[in-house]
Amino acid sequence: MATVPDLFRRNNGLVGVSDESKQRSSGSTQLHVLAVDDSLVDRKVIERLLKISSCKVTVVESGRSALQYLGLDGETNSVQFSSGLKVNLIITDYSMPEMTGYELLKKIKESSAFREIPVVIMSSENILARIDSCLKEGAEEFIVKPVKLSDVKRLKDFIMEGENGGKKIDLKRKLHPDHDHNPLSPASLGPSMTAFDQCQGFKQRSPPSLRPSPIIRSSKKPRFLNGN
Predict the structure, then answer these.
(1) Going residue by residue through the chain (228 aa), what tens digit of pLDDT does each one get?
(2) Mapping DSSP to helix (H, G, I), strand (E, B) and coil, where does residue 142 land?
(3) Are the C-beta atoms of 115 and 108 separated by less than 8 Å?
(4) Which of 20, 97, 137, 179 could form a disulfide with 188 if both were Cys (CB 3.0 to 4.6 A apart)?
(5) The Cα angle at residue 205 between residues 201 and 184, in degrees rounded to 5
(6) How far is Cα 189 from Cα 192, in angstroms, rounded to an integer?
(7) Are the C-beta atoms of 129 and 213 separated by less than 8 Å?
(8) Contacts of 196 (CB under 8 A, 6+ apart)
(9) Residue 91 pairs with which residues in a beta bridge?
(10) Is 165 left (phi over 0), alpha (psi -120 to 50) or beta?
């Protein structure tokens, strides 16, 4: 007999749910991620990275399909509730036809049932106004493609800490301890540093006249960050 996820995948645009039999087992502590991207190649990449990180993955090809999965399109019941798969994180591309990642973010944050789910935006374009608008609308983070395994692992740790007792953690990536020859060079900051981290490091080591504006500016702090 076909399961609800099977039927939804065939009829409503879902690309697939990974390891469905394992996902239905009781007591699972795996992170379940809903990944949204109109690019087949990018969907495969993010799905692969999430699986390597031992996450459960549901991948869809559009914002509309994501809303259908969550039951927010006004036409279908929530597949996640029917299948017993709670979504812990939504990661979506920004530039998609019909509905952008920003528009999907707004729909999710307008829902009383899903507004607490962390949403991460991905984009191949590093546009400051776009980053600002997404963060102000409630996105947990904005990642410039290509997404790396270190990004996925960091996000997983962040979400799992919140799921397991609500512990506060520091999301900011630390300076690499082995690189002290040039504190301003990208290499000295370590391979997993973001552009925001690099700007912050530069600001701390340079006079005010040379300090650039940070690439990512947010009016809110992520929910599980330390209040420092």
Answers:
(1) 444 344 344 444 454 554 444 444 434 578 999 999 999 999 999 999 999 999 999 999 999 999 999 999 887 566 665 566 899 999 999 999 999 999 999 999 999 999 999 999 999 999 999 999 999 999 999 999 999 999 999 999 988 887 765 544 444 333 233 333 333 333 333 444 444 444 444 444 444 444 443 334 344 544 433 344
(2) strand
(3) yes
(4) 179
(5) 60
(6) 8
(7) no
(8) 214, 215, 216
(9) 35, 120
(10) left
Distance (Å) of CA 203 to CA 86, 113, 128, 135, 198: 40, 40, 18, 21, 9
Please give the helix or strand (H or E) that residue 43 lies within, else none: helix 40-52
Beta bridge pairs of residue 34: 58, 90
User: Which residue type does 22 have?
Assistant: K
Q: Which amino acid, one-letter code, is at 114? A: F
Amino acid making up residue 72: L
Domains, in order of start, for the chain: 4-167 (3.40.50.2300), 174-228 (no CATH)
Spatial contact of 122 and 94, defined as CB atoms under 8 Å apart: yes
Query: In sequence order, which residues have a C-beta less than 8 Å from that of residue 160 and are 6 or more positions away?
Result: 29, 31
Length of the chain: 228
Cα gap 130→202, rounded to integer Å:
23
- Strand pairing class (56-60; 32-36): parallel
How many Å apart are CA 15 and CA 215, to the nearest integer?
A: 33
| Amino acid at the residue 92 | T
